[in-house]
Specification:
Length: 764
């Protein structure tokens, strides 16, 4: 770890007033085309009055080679800084050397400042190296330039050389050094500089305190960050913004908003960065009320057209599920940056995770793809954030065709080499059931992160390839990548699919003893799922007793399904009682319980479950499925006959139903609570043959070619019932087609009468 040289502690820092004597000339002046440049001329020895020139006239004099005083260059260079006129700065530089003015330290330091602020650090360094004399200003300007040019390691090197050369650091110098430490996460060096500032009693300075706040925040020491902020004597808006951002970055969003309110009470006017930081905290807390108040304040302060603030407000609406408000704000924007497009796409993708049901998630996803299409048509080029968000949407929608088009676009634009995009691509192919393409994309990744490995391991497990999943896990360990708790969920899921009890228990022990990972609910769920699949219900219930916490709804639902399948009624009723104690919020869970109680003739319990559903204000099951064919998405509702091909679809299903009987298929109804009927009775089961996924499959069979068969991919908003699972297994044999269905619980990949879930779906 880098540290301060020992000579540093023996010097007294330069006083602020002495530094300002030089530095004030380097502060930005008003950006104006009418900057005046005075030039005194002489005629026959008689001095004439100074004449004012504009920027172009002054520059013309320099181009003509006219000799001028050193002070003449300063406002011209300032204009070059304001307008980023690098070529003009170079011409001025040449004139300075030609006229011998380069011996003026002040002028050359200002030239150094001009190059640094225009982003030409290579030239700035040459000017610095050729300076006749170096003062604290020139050292500080070079350091600050490197920090702004994202080269903090060079800024630290310059700081060390400055101390070794005997120059005295000022508060501005130390602030720049601390900013570099912050970018590099050099906490120990930052603490040494902090100690240096305390020793010479300048730690109260805003430039030092602000930089310390950011440094400690980035290094995860929030208490020190807040303490550094509190130590600043004259807090400015940058100080408040730094601490508000620090609190947000360290998971203290509520406290961050409290500091924002405190700032306002101190009559400190927020700037655009403060407002965007505060709005981001509202996003974390999903506090729409406070967010709209901050938006109103932004408008009052004149930031109505500020793009970062508009983006923050729009993302807040999306995070809070207010899609229409976000779209309205988006449509009203005169200027749309790539950040805005990305915010809309990422916001819709995130809203899918918080949607009330899969149908709402599907609608958000299709809108996200529509926005991506508009982005492409706008002529603006997507970046890696765009591609990763869109691929995530394609994963959730099982939209393989759209995902493949995005894949092609990442190759064309060169973003496929990015590890984030590559991982998102692997995940997309896994979720779409195309494990071969997922594996190919994974193998072609030049860099793999833990997330990449975990995604591929989980993909193998979910697609019915447990042996490959476990082999890849061992390859990952050999590569020196340390697994996390999510990786072990994939590993234990693979063992569950393969029925590998001993191996699963060994991996479970490895996770706890070797990698010191405490088991979470998902790990226990995988092991209980394994015992249920194997019919070892007693062991499953015994395993629950070893858990350090109470089982969740998912685990009790697995046990109920297993008990029903194996006729263990008493165990099933016990599991049902435990599940009801949790007061589940999922309609599917209640439907499972109703089926169990109805089949056992327990009408009292049926009434009890119905009453609980009314108390929880739960509606019926929303049975929707959708299928994508030739870039167009078709959706189907249970029993729906609105499609133009409905007659053909029902006829095809009827024929398949008859043919399935020769395979031993016998239709068995089940009780369902749907949005179509408020009353629950067994007549609802009569329409089981017309569940939405059956209609989607029939439509897919009618509208895709058998000559070059492609898999039929369907997304379903709820879990498949036992009857549909059995029926689709037979359809995969009768049609010779691969059928992939992603329901609300898992992926089902039907090939030649077998399902990747290990026929666990047949238990539901």
């Amino acid at each position: 770890m880098m540290s301060l040289p020992s000579v540093a502690v023996t010097r007294t820092p330069k006083s602020e007033s002495e530094f300002r004597k030089y530095s004030n000339s380097f502060l930005p002046s008003e950006k104006s085309l009418g900057v005046s440049y005075q030039r005194s001329t002489q005629s026959d020895g008689v001095s004439e009055a100074p004449r004012c020139l504009d920027f172009r006239e002054a520059l013309s004099l320099i181009r003509e080679g006219t000799k001028v005083e050193s002070a003449f260059y300063v406002p011209i260079l300032q204009e070059c800084i304001n307008k980023k006129l690098v070529s003009d700065a170079q011409k001025i530089h040449a004139h300075i050397i030609k006229t011998g003015a380069h011996k003026d330290t002040f002028l050359m330091t200002f030239l150094l400042n001009a190059y640094a602020k225009c982003g030409r650090m290579d030239t700035a360094r040459k000017v610095f190296d050729e300076l006749p004399h170096r003062n604290v200003v020139s050292w500080t300007v070079l350091m600050t330039g490197y920090v702004h040019d994202s080269k903090p390691e060079l800024a630290v090197q310059i700081f060390r050389k400055m101390l070794e050369a005997g120059a005295y650091p000022t508060n501005y110098t130390l602030g720049a050094a601390l900013s570099a430490c912050s970018d590099l996460y050099f906490k120990e060096l930052g603490k040494q500089i902090h100690g240096y500032s305390i020793k010479y009693r300048i730690d109260f300075d805003a430039s030092i305190g602000n930089s310390l706040c950011s440094l400690y925040s980035k290094c995860g020491t929030l208490d020190c960050a807040v303490k550094a902020f509190r130590g600043v004597r004259d807090k400015n808006v940058i100080s408040w913004t730094a601490v508000i951002s620090a609190l947000g970055d360290n998971g203290e969003a509520a406290t961050g908003l409290q500091f924002f309110v405190e700032m306002l009470s101190e009559d400190i006017q927020p700037n655009e960065f403060t407002l965007t930081s505060a709005l981001s905290l509202c996003c974390v807390m999903q506090s729409l009320g406070i967010g709209t108040q901050i938006h109103s304040l932004a408008i009052k302060l004149g930031f109505e057209s500020n793009l970062p603030i508009k983006n923050s407000v729009m993302y807040l609406y999306l995070k809070c599920g207010r899609i229409h408000e976000a779209k309205k704000l988006f449509d009203e924007m005169e200027t749309i940056s790539l950040v805005t497009w990305n915010a809309m796409i990422a916001g819709h993708a995130r809203t899918m995770d918080y949607a009330t049901d899969d149908l709402a998630a599907y609608q958000c996803g299709t809108e996200a793809l529509s926005i991506f299409l508009k982005l492409n048509r706008s002529g603006m080029k997507p970046d890696l954030f765009t591609f990763s968000s869109v691929l995530t949407v394609c994963s959730s929608l099982v939209a393989l065709e759209q995902g493949e088009q995005v894949h092609a676009q990442t190759i064309k634009t060169g973003f496929l080499s990015d590890v984030v995009v590559g991982t998102a691509l692997v995940n997309m192919y896994n979720k779409c059931g195309t494990i071969e393409k997922a594996s190919k994309a994974f193998v072609e990744m030049s860099i793999r992160t833990l997330i990449s490995w975990t995604s591929m391991i989980t993909g193998f497990a979910q697609n019915g390839h447990p042996q490959q999943a476990l082999q890849l896990f061992e390859d990952m360990r050999l590569a020196g990548v340390r697994p996390n708790k999510i990786t072990f969920v994939g590993v234990l899921s693979a063992c569950s699919h393969a029925g590998m009890v001993d191996e699963a228990l060994d991996y479970f022990k490895m996770m706890k003893n070797v990698y010191k990972i405490s088991p979470v609910m998902d790990h226990y769920a995988c092991l209980i799922d394994m015992f249920v699949r194997l019919g070892r219900l007693d062991e499953a219930f015994d395993f629950i007793k070893e858990m350090d916490f109470e089982p969740n709804e998912f685990i009790w639902s697995i046990l109920i399904a297993g008990c029903r399948s194996q006729g263990k009624s008493e165990l099933g009723f016990y599991a049902a009682e435990q599940l009801l104690k949790l007061k589940p919020k999922d309609t599917e869970t209640y439907n499972l319980l109703l089926n169990m109680y109805l089949s056992a003739g327990k009408w009292k319990e049926v009434s009890r479950v119905r009453k609980m559903m009314k108390e929880e204000k739960l509606g019926g099951l929303k049975d929707w499925s959708w299928i994508s064919i030739k870039d167009k998405v078709y959706s189907f509702k249970r029993n729906a006959q609105s499609n133009a091909q409905s007659g053909e679809m029902f006829e095809l299903l009827g024929n398949l139903h008859e043919k399935a009987k020769s395979f031993g298929y016998e239709w068995k109804g089940s009780l369902e609570v749907t949005d179509d009927e408020e009353d629950v009775d067994e007549e609802n089961a009569s329409s089981t043959v017309y569940h939405s996924e059956k209609l989607a499959i029939a439509f897919g069979l009618l509208n895709t070619s058998n000559a070059a068969p492609i898999p039929i991919r369907v997304t379903k908003s709820i879990s498949m019932c036992k009857d549909c699972h059995h029926f689709i297994r037979i359809i995969s044999v009768l049609s010779g087609r691969e059928i992939i269905i992603r329901d609300s619980k898992r992926l089902h990949k039907f090939i030649n009468g077998h399902c990747s879930c290990g026929d666990f779906g047949a238990l539901i």
